[in-house]
Amino acid sequence: MSKLCLGGFIARYAIIGLGKIGTAIAKSLIKSGVDPTSISGSVRRVESISRVGHELPGVFVTTNNAEVVKGADIVILAVKPYQVLDALMPIRDLLSSDQLLISVVAGVTTGIIEGFVLSKVIRAMPNIGIVIERGRNCRCAWFKGF
After folding, report:
1. What is the 8-class DSSP label of residue 62?
2. Alpha-carbon distance 73 to 61, whole Å?
3. Could you give the CA distance from residue 61 to residue 64 in angstroms, rounded to a whole number?
4. How far is Cα 101 from Cα 108, in angstroms, rounded to an integer?
5. CA terminus-to-terminus distance, the chain
6. Residue 5 pLDDT > 60, yes or no?
7. For 52, which DSSP code?
8. Which end of the chain has the smaller Cβ count within 10 Å, N or C?
9. Exposure of 4 in the CB half-sphere (CA atoms within 13 A)
10. Residue 118 to residue 52: CA distance in whole angstroms
């Protein structure tokens, strides 16, 4: 999964849903110093791959969510609420308890998502200002067993 580099942890990121919010998150990660090759992401339509690839050079972009989550330490779920089940069901057996799933999906609780995956789940709620690098974020963590 991840590597150690000069005493530091280098995470591999997977973003399911490289729409406006998912792309903004990827851009922010890159701007903060994350190597673009440590990020992979998915889009729903094949024709979106080239657009997103142009916006995020170096980021691996595909329509296959299973490819995206393989080897990821942190999985960011950035789809519309009605797409959550379609996004999670094919990959639910690929997500492990070693991975952290961060949901930025409005209206879907961490409890619902935890019912489908083994990974730890937290919720982050960025606002639309994130697309112009002026966003705010609220985070909430609630782990089973705590």
Report:
1. E
2. 17
3. 9
4. 13
5. 26
6. no
7. H
8. C
9. 2
10. 29
b/e 61-72 (16+ beta carbons within 10 angstroms → b): bbeebeebbeeb
Q: What distance in Å separates the CA atoms of residue 113 and residue 12, rounded to the nearest whole number? A: 21
Nearest C-alpha neighbor of 77 from the set 14, 136, 145:
14
Cβ contact 104:78 at 8 Å: yes
Q: Report the C-alpha gap between 93 and 89 in whole angstroms.
A: 8
Q: Which two tokens stand for residue 24?
A: 């903004």
What is the pTM assigned to this prediction? 0.84
Q: Tell me the backbone φ, ψ of residue 119, rounded to 5 degrees.
A: -70, 160
Q: What is the pLDDT of residues 86-115, one digit of tens each?
A: 999 999 999 999 999 999 998 898 899 999
Residue 134 reports pLDDT greater than 60: no
Do residues 122 and 110 touch, judged by C-beta distance below 8 A? yes
**Which tokens hold the place of 98?**
């070693």
Asked whether the predicted pLDDT for residue 51 surpasses 80, the reply is yes
Q: How far apart are alpha carbons 69 and 73 in whole angstroms?
A: 8
Amino acid, res. 47:
E
Q: Which of 73, 143, 137 is nearest to 113 (CA)?
A: 143
